[in-house]
């Protein structure tokens, strides 16, 4: 089944993308929650016209994301976590804590764009990937320290 995404869906695509999904996923989740519509010929024509009109705005957003990526790539964040005496973290450090560290550093980064490869459960240095735009991704180093 081909659908047109009306908003960004993690691990599937971005707003305005035409993607193929299994029928059940499209009919039972994406379309009822208004995250997507069926990709009919008329919907594709409307999408093409809409994308043409929004091209300037999208270019501006891409440039802003590239500027933020250029600034953020050299920053090393420090994330505090409660730990045991052996250096294990109680719980795990996730995107929410990293987004809070960005805010403390003076940057506004949504937690939904932060991707971690593995769960962070010990003190040390790690890398997180920021997917700021469809075409702009950057790796950011962060260090987990004991509070």
Helical content stands at: 25-40%
According to CATH, what is the topology of the largest domain? Ribosomal Protein L9, domain 2
From the spread of the alpha carbons, the general shape counts as: elongated
Please state roughly what percent of the residues sit in beta strands, choosing from under 5%, 5-15%, 15-25%, 25-35%, 35-45% or over 45%: 25-35%
Number of strands: 9
Number of helices: 3
* CATH arch. level architecture of the largest domain: Roll
Name of the CATH class of the largest domain: Alpha Beta
**Which whole number gives the mean pLDDT?**
90
What is the structural class? alpha+beta
> Regions with pLDDT < 50 over 5+ consecutive residues?
none
Helices and strands, in order, run as EEHEHEEHEEEE
In CATH terms, the superfamily of the largest domain is Ribosomal protein L9, C-terminal domain
| Number of structural units classed as domains | 2
